[in-house]
Amino acid sequence: MPDRTPRDASFDAAWRVARTVDGWLTEAQARDLHRAASAVAPGRVVEIGSHLGRSTIVLASTGAAVTAIDPFPDDWRYGRPDTEQRFRDHLAAAGVEGNVDVRVATSRDVRTAWDDGVRLVYVDGKHDMWSCLDDLRWSAFLQPGDTVLVHDAFSSLGVTLALLRDQTATRRHRYVGRTGSLARFEVATPSVGDRLRVVGELPWFARNLLVKVLLRLRLRPAAALLGHRDTADPY
Ligand SMILES: C[S@@+](CC[C@H](N)C(=O)[O-])C[C@H]1O[C@@H](n2cnc3c(N)ncnc32)[C@H](O)[C@@H]1O
């Protein structure tokens, strides 16, 4: 196995670069990604949804082998024709391109042809319910005790619905907790209590939806009353 360990695999070194790349990962969430990827490095991490590489850089800086999946469509709110090139430039600038296997394809297309082991799955792709449910199927390549991280778990209607459906329809993901709306699941049989803890996050989800509405209405002071002082949506 090639030695992928970067000269400085610390979180601080990774975040110094990643924070300069536009994206929706907070520092605390980036720490979670870094911790989870460090625990499995140099094993395989699958990232679904890379955009400009903010999270990819954090994951790959640990020395993990990252498969970064993104079709880079330019027909969504933040998509541009040069997104893929900017993503590749960011990886190169961070010095992690050697650790990243870039797949310009949908998560489903890569998954249906996949025949390798995976140690960590990070879901941050298309945010409608069906796509997210499909992305969660990547966990079939994980072993019991491995981790699935889901971004926007309680700040996006489609992702939240997918998680509720997954919790009622499968017995594969045990909810561990969240950092903002980055949720951590362990591949393990959830107890009833574990499932109820996901339902228990719904007030937090409702608060985030309300904040989004207030921001759309340009009512930032009202959003601030709910503890949201950013101009960006909560995530
Ligand atoms: C919220 S962004 C990802 C942000 C990124 N993780 C970061 O840290 O900045 C969602 C990404 O999912 C990608 N995407 C859309 N459909 C997808 C699919 N079917 N499979 C994988 N990624 C997809 C989009 O192109 C977009 O770049």
Summarize the structure in words:
This protein has 235 residues and is of the alpha/beta class. It folds into 2 domains: 11-191, Rossmann fold (3-Layer(aba) Sandwich), CATH 3.40.50.150; 201-235. It is 41% helix and 15% strand. It is built from 10 helices and 7 strands. It has helices at 11-18, 27-40, 54-60, 83-94, 107-112, 129-136, 157-169, 192-199, 202-216, 220-225, and strands at residues 44-48, 65-69, 100-103, 120-123, 147-150, 173-179, 182-187. It has a 7-stranded mixed beta sheet with strand order 3-2-1-4-5-7-6, sandwiched between helices. The longest helix has 15 residues, at 202-216. The N and C termini lie far apart (36 Å). 43% of the residues are buried. The chain binds S-adenosylmethionine. Residues 23-25, 48-52, 54-55, 69-73, 79, 106-107, 124-126, 131 line the site of S-adenosylmethionine. S-adenosylmethionine (SAM) binds at residues 23-25, 48-52, 54-55, 69-73, 79, 106-107, 124-126, 131. InterPro entries: SAM-dependent_MTases_sf. This is Class I SAM-dependent methyltransferase.
Structural class: alpha/beta
Strand order of the largest sheet: 3-2-1-4-5-7-6
CATH domain topology of the largest domain = Rossmann fold
What percentage of the residues does DSSP assign to strands (E)?
Answer: 5-15%
CATH homologous superfamily (4th level) name of the largest domain: Vaccinia Virus protein VP39
Largest sheet: 7 strands, mixed
Which molecules are bound in this entry? S-adenosylmethionine
**Number of domains in the coordinates?**
2
Task: Flag low-confidence runs.
Answer: none
What is the global morphology? globular
Task: Kindly report the average pLDDT value.
Answer: 94
Rg calculated over all Cα atoms: 17 Å
Please give the count of helices.
10
Report the CATH architecture of the largest domain: 3-Layer(aba) Sandwich
